[in-house]
Recover the amino acids of this structure.
């Protein structure tokens, strides 16, 4: 089966850097997604990693280590609007349904 | 290009009632997945529809059923509502032929069961 763990909450300061970790266990690996979800809104796609290493996209970067079952999302130059829940997800099963972690609620403080 | 749309936005029902939620996928997408998201939790997979058939189902009782129409839109039906069914219901669409099957989410329907 699949299992995903990520911290429940994190707090960071505006302008700083924050790293949100995710560990996963899957019976087969077809990549890892990060989504951002503001309160009461739909999840929006941030990144997809299928190979080991760091993928950079503006202020956001995502890292994957398949051998360790580990990923992180790195947010630089934090802004107040980055306050949201960050969801780690892996595809599972033949249909690639997404298995989500509980999400990490990030609070950015002035 | 319209993204994924869902209706209604909010819904209030009482225990024992039945509800139907609707979803129109992003243009060009042929696969619709439904998720339930309780407060403070990640989305939980309910089921997925492709070619008007249910392809995979999560750990949800038979009270949850669905349908996909020839235009790829979909409905989620929940019978005999329970208080625990109160949640945000998300629809996600994707294209079966895409390389990694990125799913695009709709704004969700907030269901409250009293």
């Amino acid at each position: 089966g699949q299992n995903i763990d990520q911290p429940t909450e994190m707090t960071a300061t505006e302008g700083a850097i924050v790293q949100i970790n995710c560990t996963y266990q899957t019976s087969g690996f077809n990549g890892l997604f990060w989504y951002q979800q503001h309160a009461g809104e739909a999840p929006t796609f941030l990144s997809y990693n299928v190979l080991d290493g760091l993928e950079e996209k503006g202020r956001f970067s995502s890292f994957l280590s398949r051998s360790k079952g580990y990923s992180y999302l790195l947010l630089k130059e934090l802004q107040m609007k980055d306050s949201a829940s960050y969801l780690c997800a892996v595809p599972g099963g033949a249909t690639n349904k997404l298995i989500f972690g509980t999400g990490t609620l990030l609070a950015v403080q002035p | 290009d319209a993204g994924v749309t869902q209706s209604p936005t909010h819904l209030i029902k009482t225990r024992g009632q039945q509800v139907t939620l609707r979803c129109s996928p992003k243009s060009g997408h042929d696969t619709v997945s439904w998720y339930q998201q309780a407060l403070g939790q990640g989305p939980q997979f309910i089921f997925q529809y492709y070619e008007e058939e249910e392809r995979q189902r999560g750990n949800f009782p038979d009270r949850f059923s669905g349908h996909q129409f020839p235009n790829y839109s979909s409905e989620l039906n929940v019978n005999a509502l329970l208080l625990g069914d109160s949640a945000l219901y998300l629809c996600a669409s994707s294209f079966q032929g895409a390389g990694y099957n990125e799913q695009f989410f709709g704004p969700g329907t907030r269901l409250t069961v009293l």
Notes: The interface with chain A takes residues 4, 31, 33, 35, 40-45, 48, 50, 55-56, 58, 88, 90, 92, 94, 100-108, 110 of chain B (CB under 8 Å).
